[in-house]
Design a protein that fits this description.
Length: about 400
């Protein structure tokens, strides 16, 4: 077993043969730490930055073509020619590319929210498990105390001849069994703490600073609230993104625009209004060009547009399937909640009180010699089983609340 020395919000666990620092935090603090440190969160944040930068490429019009020519293209004289050409995608294509960029940024943001919801769900689930194991440890310690008392009493009764070896051995066996369960549960606590440490990317194991308690019901448990489910929102956004991709591919069938400018010298005589006039190489003649680049073979463009349409339908069907599955999972979660709530109400209303009464009365009766060890042991087992089942029922109820919060996107 380990001994815990609590100081502020840190503890040190003394394990043979080494020591390890650990941190005590609340569930809310654990969730916030995970949302800040978890690497999947950071990856999603970089994804948003990626799409923000990518959005700026939506207005890309390509490179300017600049060609300079010098030679005898007009006469025996050496002339210069500068030709600038710029091909611009059709305005519809540029507009669709800009819209696609905006939707991709929104998609990245919704992906971040979805991952945050997933991480928060994992943290709360593990933290609740740690709360249960901590409460179970305290319950097992109280059981250990009862069985040690039983073992001491049986030993005294055996020495005085009031009982036989079987009673003494039974009492000692029960005490050893509880000690073994304590060791196993303590190992489970360490496993959960290590799991929590990984989720939070913490430098030391994380332990609970709270005790297990009944969680409050979320507000608005109707199916309309499922519209805020982050994964559903992400899938719906993917449908929009694929629709924008289809629009971009369709618009690429449209012609590109070509804009040009030229400046050149024409050394020699030119007839101007019937008069031959000499122009030196320093004289610059200039003009502009405007044209269309029309795709002669539109088959590949149409194929890409059709492929984008199929991809849009794939994402739409995936969204519809997930929405149906989500509603089914939510209905199941509500039924689980009702079941766990009814079970919890049974323990809170009468079972726990009866368990405490059963322990105190049977203990007194056994010490007074009014009942034998078999009846006493059976009473202890019944009462302690009730307490164990109550803790299990409480954590199952809390876990069902956590699942509903996850489905509703309340992290």
């Amino acid at each position: 077993m380990s001994f815990k020395i609590q100081h502020s919000k840190f503890i040190i666990l003394l394990f043979t043969p080494f020591s390890l620092w650990a941190q005590l935090i609340s569930q809310e603090e654990a969730v916030q730490m995970a949302l800040k440190n978890n690497q999947l969160i950071k990856s999603a944040e970089y994804g948003i930055d990626y799409y923000r930068e990518l959005k700026k490429t939506g207005t890309d019009i390509g490179k300017l073509s600049a060609v300079w020519m010098r030679g005898q293209y007009n006469s025996l004289q050496q002339d210069n020619n500068l030709n600038l050409m710029q091909t611009i995608p059709f305005p519809t294509t540029l507009a669709n590319q800009v819209r696609l960029g905006k939707e991709q940024v929104i998609g990245g943001q919704k992906n971040l929210i979805n991952i945050q919801n997933e991480i928060a769900f994992q943290v709360k689930t593990v933290y609740e498990q740690l709360l249960y194991q901590d409460a179970l440890q305290r319950l097992l310690l109280s059981q250990d105390s009862l069985y040690q008392d039983f073992a001491r009493a049986s030993s005294v009764r055996y020495k005085t001849g009031e009982s036989n070896l079987l009673e003494k051995t039974t009492a000692e066996t029960q005490s050893f069994e509880i000690k073994n369960t304590l060791i196993v549960n303590e190992a489970d606590i360490k496993i959960s703490a290590t799991h929590l440490q990984a989720l939070l990317k913490a430098e030391m194991p994380i332990y609970n600073s709270e005790k297990i308690a009944k969680r409050a019901l979320p507000q608005n448990l109707d199916t309309v609230s499922l519209k805020s489910n982050p994964q559903l929102n992400l899938l719906q956004q993917q449908v929009i993104i694929n629709a924008r991709i289809k629009s971009v591919e369709k618009s690429k069938v449209l012609p590109d625009l070509t804009v040009g400018y030229f400046a050149q010298s024409l050394t020699g005589f030119q007839n101007i209004d019937g008069v031959d006039t000499y122009f030196p190489s320093s004289k610059v003649f200039q003009g502009f060009e405007l044209g269309l680049n029309i795709p002669l073979w539109i088959g590949p463009h149409l194929a890409r547009a059709r492929a984008a349409s199929f991809q849009e339908e794939v994402s739409r069907k995936n969204t519809e399937y997930f929405q149906t599955t989500l509603q089914g999972n939510y209905s199941q979660a509500l039924r689980e909640l009702d079941k766990n709530l009814a079970s919890l109400a049974y323990y809170e209303s009468s079972a726990l009180k009866n368990a405490d009464l059963l322990i105190s009365q049977s203990r007194k009766a056994y010490r007074a010699g009014e009942i034998g060890y078999i009846e006493y042991l059976q009473s202890l087992k019944t009462a302690l089983s009730i307490k164990n089942n109550y803790l299990l029922s409480l954590t199952q109820y809390n876990q069902s609340i956590i699942k509903i919060e996850f489905l509703l996107g309340k992290f």
